[in-house]
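task queued by scheduler; priority normal; single chain, no ligands, no partner chains; default sampling; output format set to structure tokens
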Amino acid sequence: MAKIPWLILLLLVGVTLAAKPLIRYIAQVVTNLVMSKLLTEQYSQNVAELLPSLKRFSLLNLLELSLRAENGKVLTRPIGPVKHFAGYDQLMFSPRQMTKLPLPESAGIDLSVTLGPKAQKPLTIQIPLMISAMAYGLALSEEAKLALAKAAKALKTATNSGEGPFLPEEPLETDKFILQICRWSWGARTDEQIGLADMLEIQMGQGADIGTSRIEAQELEGRARILGGLAPGQPAISLPAPPEVKTSADWPEFIKKLRQRANGIPLALKLMATDHLEEELTAAVDLGFDVIVIDGAEAGTHATAPIKQDDFGIPGIHALMRAKRFLQGTSVSLVISGGFFTPGQCLKALALGADAIYLATVPLMALGHNQVQKVIPWKPPTTLVYYHSPAKTELDIDQAAACVANVLTAMTLEMEEAMRALGKSSLRELSPDDLVALDCRTAEITGVKPVSAPAALPGAESLRQSLNQLRGLLSLAHRLAGFMESILAELCYNQDLPRVHLLRNQYRLLAEEKKALTVRRL
């Protein structure tokens, strides 16, 4: 009987030795067969026919084409656009070393920001990074929203409610709470809800979404449906503007009432960045907004149609510079968002004139750090934080909050280290002069000095000034042409007196700009 284990062992060794060449032989036969077919059969019969197609369009294009072919419905792509736009990578910080020394490691850095300084109750945060709008119910789960609120409290910054139904526990878990007045049936918010906010933000658009949309009833079933005031089986359908705003003529009265309800806290306006930015900002300034939030084309979203993500808006860096120039001389604060993933990108935007940065993708990904193993590999990591997901209850709220706080703390510490290297002790000391542009296009967009500036030629400075004046006049002429088209359309088709009043104010601003542009004779 003792010999049996040895016989089994010898049998296993024999099988193993015999199996190795057999497996190699089978693999070689299959490989030869596959290669023979790939390299000899005509394209019409060859599985490699797909390769030339994928040189013409991407694997993502093929995937989304197939999804559209499956059910003939609008796709809702998660996270955001796949395009890469001109951004901050071609800007570099340029510190002095001999003529100005860096600050010592012990030097304190003031990164605090006050938004809406002229409001009765301005919003002050200790770091210039805020947690952006991510909607409860429409996107995130209750667990994820509470984790974000706790993280914001630990960081002494603000978190945004997003455009979903009001979650009562959220403002109680944080110190600085921004409440969106949004384009849904629940979007006007109650006085009690507004009383818990530190700033109100009217949402008219975002980088990856604008206009109306529909959320089917089954996707919002549960507590979010109840808090949103929807009947069982009733879909959620967004509006063109917040409730009570039916036409552009309703804005002045709507803002007047909202400011009374706000009881002194700042009013912010959130916009998708578009080429009509100056027109939008004219209306916003006339209406008395304290803060402007601009979402660049790089911005993400929970789930919208790919056409809105990839083919609407303009890049954030263009919008930032145009808005900063327009708002110069006003007390309106400027918040930029969309496509910020590193502390360097954030600090460059602040140097160019942004007062604060909204972050969404960074804290969203940090929520599931060290917890994604609960859902992968069979489900995407984001199912851990989405409302319409069975796995949402598996998120450990305190652990998620700690991870979000950690990632933003690390980003803040890196920004502080960069500030010391630049010899700056406060964000108010940071400016475009601390940057250099690596290419002429980025220099033109931002007004930052190009690194390859040519040697000065006789009369070059005079020529540069003349060209800058000409550029300003051409820009003004372009906007005047668009303005005149608007006037003609209004006079022909519209009896909207408040709209005519708005056009008159816009004309006054353009006239003042023209007066400021003194053309030198060449």
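post-processing summary
- The mean pLDDT is 88.
- Residues 144 and 385 are 5 Å apart (CA to CA).
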